């Protein structure tokens, strides 16, 4: 299985984007799903995570109050609503699964990612 990410594009600072992460070949039950991003020359960082069991979410400080992770179980898809985009947000955004949002490594079912660009 793997994820298929979509929804990336070019926005101006302050604008919004909604990313989608559709699971293919597996169901999201019993997993947590985490959005990651990686900018050129920087390490990949986890930004938002959702527990598909109870719906609890966890956000990195740099995106709290701006990004919202959500899930549509019927569509087997996780979303990332990104508001108030900043110049530091451009990156390739991707998602993966694990069994707990406190895990930093060992995620699986990576997709190809979707590019987000913020014009300056």
Order of helices and strands: EEEEEEEEEE
- Total number of helices: 0
What is the percent of helical residues? under 10%
Name the structural class.
Answer: mainly beta
Q: What is this structure's SSE topology?
A:
Elements: E1 2-6, E2 9-11, E3 17-24, E4 32-38, E5 45-51, E6 57-59, E7 67-72, E8 77-82, E9 91-98, E10 114-118
Parallel strand pairs: 2-10
Antiparallel strand pairs: 1-3, 3-8, 4-5, 4-9, 5-6, 7-8, 9-10
Gist of the model:
With 120 residues, this protein is mostly beta strands.
Describe the protein's architecture and organization.
The chain has strands at residues 2-6, 9-11, 17-24, 32-38, 45-51, 57-59, 67-72, 77-82, 91-98, 114-118. The chain has 120 residues and is mainly β. The strands form two sheets. The chain has a six-stranded mixed sheet with strand order 2-10-9-4-5-6, with no helix packed on it.
